Amino acid sequence: MIVPASTFKVANTIIALETGAVKDENEIIPYGGKPQPFKQWEKDMSMREAIALSAIPIYQEIARRVGSGRYRDWLARLDHGNRQPGTSVDTFWLDGPLEISAVEQAHFVARLAQQKLDASPRAQAITRDIIRLECSSSKLLYGKTGWRFASNANLGWWTGWVEQDGKIEAFSLTIDMPGAGTDAPKRVAIGKALLSRLGVL
Any catalytic annotation for residue 151? Predict the structure, then answer.
């Protein structure tokens, strides 16, 4: 079990919509005006843009709107990881105590893909739409990366699913990233290579 890092933006989008913390995927949300690790995070943006850029400050603002109590309810309702939001409402998916395994991640996104989460069809449909990465004539690829920042170890996530002819193939990958930023692109590259080897992509 490890922290979900930015893969939690998938569940967080559903929770934001269901609680009314955010009206829809296009509402502009303030980032707070503080310097960020990546320049592209230093602007107000919608969830649609924020999830593509993996902009942490946008989802931290959403988290403060949601509040710990509602997170506790929704993590249980969605059966997400160990269901623990702790007391730090805007960092619990980055630093803990929320943790999840790769198998649990795959099960979670599989339920989202099939609209089987205990959430409204609208929230699930919007979330699926904003994490769609690729669309070919026969296959749809959905996914979200994550990056656990730590002084002694960086860990990368890539979680999602491939849809073809109504069939869902969910996946979740974790890799060590000793090279931090230089290793970050390998999450998707390795994931795609493995999916291709398995005949999924």
Answer: no
